[in-house]
Design brief:
418 residues, UDP-n-acetylglucosamine1-carboxyvinyl-transferase, Chain, four-stranded mixed beta sheet, 14 helices, 23 strands, binds uridine-diphosphate-N-acetylglucosamine
């Protein structure tokens, strides 16, 4: 067990470089199973979800070579259809194994996905998509198995623009016969990244990033290729909000400004100043942030994955703010932790009211989920006194070298073994 100890308050100043997108990485790694060959993935974030996914791929027969901290070569010439079920249960993105292995082998069995406890998180839309493509799917005793003699392209309308279902159906239909159309598809940047990866490897996917994606099935993918993962939209947004919360000044390098438009708009509304220059973004704030109302929405709306980080900013803003969480129903668990630090937040169901306080006061807090973990680190850097943060395993799933990055921009932060 480890904890983070943060002494605050400190304005965060300096430069921070954004890593590859964790949510793209955990979809591209299983997507490599569709290739009967060898491919190299660059700009992988060094986070525990990625390492764990590599272990899972090994269970399915992939050979993995780490070329350096951020680059691997994966040989998927000898793949088996089933694996140890327990390992796939531990995190959310293991559901992508179903689409990828259905596509590659026509048969798969995995444990039902786990992941952050932020709401019900069903996978009915994924299953509906696989069935529409011709697979039979069975869920029993905590496992999900799917098989198909042949997958055939079809039109699939998603009742909800689900990120996971969009990517999973895309994976299952890349090698299907004929054309698949996904209507009301999600548009998040990592969906485009997965499509770009698959197209680099010889797939024929059009329209990713819009709400209609067309996948013309191909017989096989290329046997060799290299792909570099897109920068992480959520990590960039986290540091933007850290700059505002701490009344600091950060130069955020290696980000795609286009992916950050909804966040830039809100940062400006609450009094932050944003200057963009190519793949760099300078964000600074000299005064106490203004109040604002936020509603989380699918991309290009304000991301649910930045809701908690924005919550920290609003907890110390001038006046009263309201956040409506429209994606996941249990995403306000962090507000209890912030209240231990002197925040005045009342949450009920999918909304929370933030009565801004002048300052936060350090307290021991527990991380309830991945993004809330980053939010609590921001809270620790702006709070008066010594904050202790427990349950770092959630943070390590998706943020690379987080305390080193915060230390480099001036935070007084240490990771300590308990
Ligand atoms: C992904 C991201 C997560 C992010 C979320 C929303 C990954 C690994 N995780 O999660 O970080 O917070 O998108 O941007 O990329 N739903 C159904 N049935 C389904 C699928 C989803 O009802 O079959 C509902 C969910 O309960 C949720 C909403 O649709 O209310 C959106 O979920 P979805 O976009 O699928 O999120 P994830 O893929 O789980």
């Amino acid at each position: 067990m480890e904890k983070l100890v943060i002494k605050g308050p400190t304005p965060l100043r300096g430069e921070v470089s954004i890593s590859g997108a964790k949510n793209a990485a955990v979809a591209i790694l299983p997507a490599t199973l569709l290739i009967n060959g060898i491919c190299t993935i660059e700009n992988l974030p060094n986070v525990s979800d990625v390492k764990q996914f590599c272990e899972i791929l090994k269970f399915f027969g992939a050979k993995i070579t780490w070329n350096n901290e951020h680059e691997i070569t994966i040989d998927t010439r000898n793949i088996s259809k089933t694996s140890e079920l327990e390992i796939t249960r531990t995190f959310r993105a293991s559901y992508y194994l179903i689409g990828a292995l259905l596509g590659r082998c026509g048969k798969v069995q995995v444990g039902l996905p786990g992941g952050c406890k932020i709401g019900a998180r069903p996978i009915d839309l994924h299953i509906k998509g696989f069935e529409a493509l011709g697979a039979s799917v069975e869920v029993s005793q905590g496992n999900i198995s799917a098989r198909a003699k042949k997958l055939e392209g079809t039109s699939i309308y998603l009742d909800i623009a689900s990120v996971g279902a969009t990517i999973n159906i895309m994976l299952a239909s890349v090698l299907a016969e004929g054309t698949t159309i996904i209507d009301n598809a999600a548009k998040e940047p990592h969906i485009v990244d997965v499509a770009n990866f698959l197209n680099t490897m010889g797939a024929d996917i059009r329209g990713a990033g819009t709400d209609v994606i067309k996948i013309n099935g191909v017989k096989e993918l290329k046997r060799e290729g290299t792909y570099s993962i897109v920068p992480d939209q959520i990590e960039a947004g986290t540091f933007m909000l850290a700059a505002v919360a701490s009344r600091g000044d950060l130069l955020i390098k290696n980000c795609i400004t286009k992916h950050l438009e909804s966040i830039i708009a809100k940062v400006v509304e609450i009094g932050g100043i944003v200057e963009s220059n190519g793949d760099k973004l300078r964000v600074y704030c000299k005064k106490r942030p203004n109040r604002a109302n936020i509603k989380t929405l699918p991309y290009p709306g304000f991301p649910t994955d930045l809701q908690a980080q924005m919550g920290v900013v609003l907890s110390i803003a001038k006046g009263t703010s309201i956040i409506n969480e429209s994606i996941f129903e249990s995403r306000f668990q962090y507000t209890e932790e912030l209240n231990k630090m002197g925040a005045k937040i009342t949450s009920q169901g999918k909304s929370a009211v933030f009565d801004g306080v002048e300052e936060l006061i350090a307290a021991p807090v527990c991380v309830p989920d991945l993004r809330a973990g980053a939010a609590l680190i921001i809270a620790g850097t702006i709070a008066k006194g010594t904050t202790e943060i427990y349950h770092l395993e959630h943070i390590d799933r998706g943020y690379e070298h987080i305390e080193e990055k915060f230390k480099k921009i001036g935070a007084n932060i240490e990771r300590i073994k308990i």
